[in-house]
Amino acid sequence: MITYEKATQDPAIREYIARADASLMALGYTEHSFAHVTRVAETAKYIMEKLEYPARDVELVQIAAYLHDIGNLVNRVDHSQSGAMIAFRLLDHMDGDPADIATVVTAIGNHDEGTGIAVNPVAAALIIADKSDVRRSRVR
Length: 140
Known about the structure:
Strand content: under 5%
CATH architecture: Orthogonal Bundle
Largest sheet: none
Number of domains: 1
Order of helices and strands: HHHHHHH
CATH superfamily: Hypothetical protein af1432
Distance between the termini: 37 Å
CATH class: Mainly Alpha
Shape: globular
Number of strands: 0
CATH topology: Hypothetical protein af1432
């Protein structure tokens, strides 16, 4: 079973998040580092817990939030879709349950305001949590 802790400790995931942030820094975008994805994961968890969703959904939203910007590794354009595909590969490689993987990649693929829609509670919590991270330190 995939867990938030396993995702945060996975060397490939950590490398891809770091490289995605480096690409965005080179392009002049705001910070999308471990601080951002961790903050989004914490906020999304808070939302789901306050709304009394099952513990597994809370865990899945944390995983989705941690991975949500990994597609910036490929390109900023359509990063939510490429991120969903990268997340699928990573989570499948971790022997994730297909239903869990589907929930996570659906949320990631729908988190960008230009192309995404809150198609389920995990996606909705991810979108709100992502857009609420407005720390001044994100500006580079």
